[in-house]
Design goal:
four-stranded antiparallel beta sheet, two-stranded antiparallel sheet
Length: 304
């Protein structure tokens, strides 16, 4: 395994040792891929585009929940570094899944600065990050690294975590925990898809010549592509995991928009992140919760 080879390189005093190939079905590989996906979430991508953030400049402070970044060079030739914390309303609203996944990867080791993946799962990963995840001893001497590399080679893998002493860590990175976090991301994707379709329909009926019945027919004819990971999985979603926009709204108890303004209001409501990230314990709630809209937002959606 590559960690064995990385230990040998580190023992030989190589600098910046990385692991170039992460097994995608390994526990680390699955969480690393999920962390990457959190940064590709529609609400995060939109925010990054609006800010002009250069993705490969991002670092996270897992203790404070801060994000540090540079803007794209054509927007900021001086390449100043900017930092936003949880007091920034928008970052606080979208950062929850990112920080949750990054903290699982960090495995409670308290690293102050964390650089998330930006391209694909195959990009090199610092070997120490993988070692921390699997509770490997750090700061070993050269001879100790070589001995540990031999042990890993003989065992063909890492030691299993002890449930008696690492129960919380085992639960945090369990298959179920990953499914819950992936479902939350899937729900964000579904909201974004619904919001986009509502905006397209709102533009199509902007002239005011469409009756409530015609708008309802349009809602029935337009489909939304659903995430395969989301918590909303209707039985009749079809081969391509699609469902009519009308059924999606009805299944979640929304008042059906009948005017251009109501379409715009609902599109805005579904496309706006909640004021703060949902706690992990609530991520399994069926879409669209989170985020359930406030009473005021529901009122605004129904306005003509």
């Amino acid at each position: 395994m590559e960690y064995h080879s990385a230990l040998i390189l580190a023992a030989n005093r190589e600098k910046n040792v990385t692991i170039n190939t992460i097994a995608p079905d390994s526990t680390f590989g699955q969480w690393w891929a999920h962390l990457r996906d959190t940064l590709k979430s529609p609400d995060v991508r939109q925010w990054m585009d609006e800010k002009g953030i250069s993705p490969d400049s991002i670092t996270l402070n897992l203790n404070t929940g801060e994000i540090s970044f540079k803007r794209r060079r054509h927007l900021d030739p001086e390449q100043k570094r900017h930092t936003l914390g949880q007091d920034d309303r928008h970052w606080a609203a979208i950062s929850g899944p990112i920080l949750q996944a990054a903290r699982v990867i960090d495995a409670g080791n308290g690293d102050t600065t964390f650089t998330p993946p930006q391209s694909d799962v195959g990009q090199p990963v610092p070997y120490s990050l993988v070692g921390n995840f699997y509770n490997e001893p750090q700061n070993l001497t050269g001879p100790s690294m070589r001995r540990r590399a031999e042990e890993i080679d003989r065992a063909q893998g890492f030691k299993q975590l002890d449930p008696a002493t690492a129960g919380t860590l085992i639960q945090a990175r369990s298959d179920n925990a990953l499914l819950v976090q992936k479902a939350y991301l899937g729900d964000v994707y579904n909201r974004s898809q619904a919001s986009n379709q509502l905006r397209h329909l709102a533009s199509a009926v902007k002239d005011g010549g469409h009756s409530a019945g015609q708008i309802k027919d349009e809602l029935k004819n337009r489909t939304v592509s659903l995430s395969f990971d989301g918590s909303y999985q209707p039985a009749n979603r079809g081969t391509w995991n699609e469902i009519s926009l009308l059924q999606l709204l009805q299944d979640h108890g929304w008042d059906i928009p009948t005017t251009h303004q109501q379409l715009e209001n609902l599109a805005t409501a579904l496309g706006t992140p909640p004021p703060q990230a949902a706690p992990m314990a609530t991520w399994a709630v069926r879409w669209p919760g989170p985020p359930l809209l406030t009473r005021a937002a529901r009122h605004n959606c129904a306005r003509t």
